[in-house]
Specification:
7 helices, alpha+beta, disordered N terminus, 4 strands, Alpha-Beta Plaits, 187 residues, 2 domains
């Protein structure tokens, strides 16, 4: 949910920046974005970043420059304030409650999921923790290189297969939260 909110915010910021901050119709903004595409997205990215203190995503108007180039440009202007969601590390927490009689089946399936997920290119870490007070409560904690890695993970066969097992074993709906982590500081 937080990721979706961030993406919607960035899209709104971008629309306002590329439309010159005015409430122009989407067709006149589209024309402006087409002009951005003709300059490989660089002009619009610079303009959007300048008008939004570097917070513009620039995704809709990158043209041939590519998202990395546009994000790099915004990052140089704004440091960690730039949106650049495609290059932001993702952290996922998933809390699950399991039927007592299904705990062993869940753990066996989770072990296979974890092993295969850790082998994925964009996986930084993937762990499962069991509540010592309630053996039916678990927490997955995952770190992914970026949104593309998360999307690739969600599309894998082992993730889909685990979803079927989870549906059979769960006593309640999973609570999944995806966080953006643009920077980290070890303490």
């Amino acid at each position: 949910m937080k990721t979706r909110i961030l993406v919607l915010f960035c899209a709104a910021v971008m629309m306002a920046a590329c439309c010159g901050g005015n409430s122009q119709s989407s067709s006149s903004c589209s024309k402006k974005q087409e002009g951005c595409a003709q300059t490989e997205g660089k002009a619009c990215c610079k303009e959007a970043a300048a008008k939004t203190d570097g917070k513009a995503c620039c995704k809709e108007s990158m043209g041939k420059a590519g998202e990395k180039a546009c994000c790099k440009e915004s990052m140089e202007k704004a440091g960690e304030k730039a949106c650049c969601a495609a290059e932001v590390k993702k952290i996922i927490s998933a809390r699950v409650s399991i039927k007592p009689e299904k705990v062993n089946a869940f753990v066996a399936a989770a072990k296979e999921l974890i092993e295969k997920s850790r082998a994925e290119e964009g996986c930084i870490s993937y762990s499962l923790y069991q509540d010592p007070q309630d053996k039916t409560k678990f927490l997955f904690f995952e770190e992914w290189k970026n949104q593309a890695a998360v999307d690739a993970h969600f599309a894998t066969e082992h993730f889909k297969k685990f979803g079927d097992v989870l549906n059979d074993c769960a006593s309640a709906a999973a609570v999944i939260t995806i966080y953006d982590s643009p920077s980290e500081k070890q303490v």
